[in-house]
Amino acid sequence: MSRLSDRDEAITMSNDRSPVTVIGLGLMGKALAAAFLKGSHSTTVWNRSAGKADDLVDLGAVRAETISEAVSASKVVVVCLSTYEVMDELLAPLGNELSGRVLINLTNGTPDDARKTAKWAIDCGVDYLDGAIMAVPQMIGASDALLFYGGQQDLFQAHEPLLKLLGGNTTYLSDDPGVPMLYNLALLTILYGTGEGMLHAQAMLSTANISATQFQPYAAAWFNNVILPLFSSLDAAREVDEGDYATEVSNINTNRLALGHIIKASEELDISAKWLAPNKALLDQMVNDGYGEDSPFRAFETISPVRRNKRS
Length: 312
Ligand SMILES: NC(=O)c1ccc[n+]([C@@H]2O[C@H](COP(=O)([O-])OP(=O)(O)OC[C@H]3O[C@@H](n4cnc5c(N)ncnc54)[C@H](OP(=O)(O)O)[C@@H]3O)[C@@H](O)[C@H]2O)c1
What we know:
The chain is an alpha/beta fold. The chain folds into two domains: 3-175, Rossmann fold (3-Layer(aba) Sandwich), CATH 3.40.50.720; 183-311, Orthogonal Bundle (N-(1-d-carboxylethyl)-l-norvaline Dehydrogenase, domain 2), CATH 1.10.1040. The chain has 15 helices and eight strands. It has an eight-stranded mixed β-sheet, with helices on both faces. Bound molecules: NADP nicotinamide-adenine-dinucleotide phosphate (NAP). Residues 24-29, 47-49, 52, 80-82, 86, 90, 107-108, 133, 136-137 line the site of NADP nicotinamide-adenine-dinucleotide phosphate (NAP).
């Protein structure tokens, strides 16, 4: 079948307003179901704590009494639960009922979880897409809400109009179902690393009675003028891809000293700097190895297993 006819079919399906089931009505699942209802899809919902469906029922959703009834109600079943373990527990007994249906899993876990679930789905005769939501519930349905998908590309294309109801920036990444979760966790790593740094910074300022609010304009300027240009430029990404760490900006020697001062000052201020110690150890190692004049991005050579394996 040509790509064009696949797309035509998807558009027809979307116009059909085909029924969809949502399993898991936590903060995110509720937002997903509400977006399908807004898109005029007949939406069946199920949640362990049945009361969480009340608002959706008021909006027109059908409350399934059992998870089996929920699965049977629609060809497309969207799952959004706390973990893959919970999902396995709920869906494993339903293999037969799921057979011939489309399972779209938006639960967070690891790439390995996603790949194992995809294999289980294939074994049960279930069409499977694994997705990752890079948005908070309040953003679901917005044109800039980013959601990643992986698995069978034709399946994604057939259901793209439905999936776009959840976010305009709906992106198919790979036929490897583990890849969306890899992107998701990579982006979350940046978030949590930055978050830890921000809280550490605010804690340092608090020791001189400077509030987070007072600090914020300077933190914002630092983000916008230094951190964002540094980390969002393609040049920085190319440096890592090409493994060329020559720098005219700021080298490992300079950054190692700065990090040493942060750790020493934090200890003087009674703020735990344990999370910075591995970073400092990496910089120390690179200086010992004779790379002090290179950019600190050289640490990628040690962190990435792909680069380590290439050298060994
Ligand atoms: N919230 C966000 O901003 C956000 C953003 C991106 C991705 N996500 C992902 O979306 C998924 C859901 O997140 P959420 O914010 O909706 O979490 P949540 O509000 O804590 O909801 C968790 C859901 O899992 C269900 N659940 C947990 N343990 C269960 C069990 N043993 N048996 C049956 N159901 C069980 C809960 O049912 P009960 O209601 O009965 O407890 C609820 O439906 C997670 O994987 C999360 O990482 C969330």
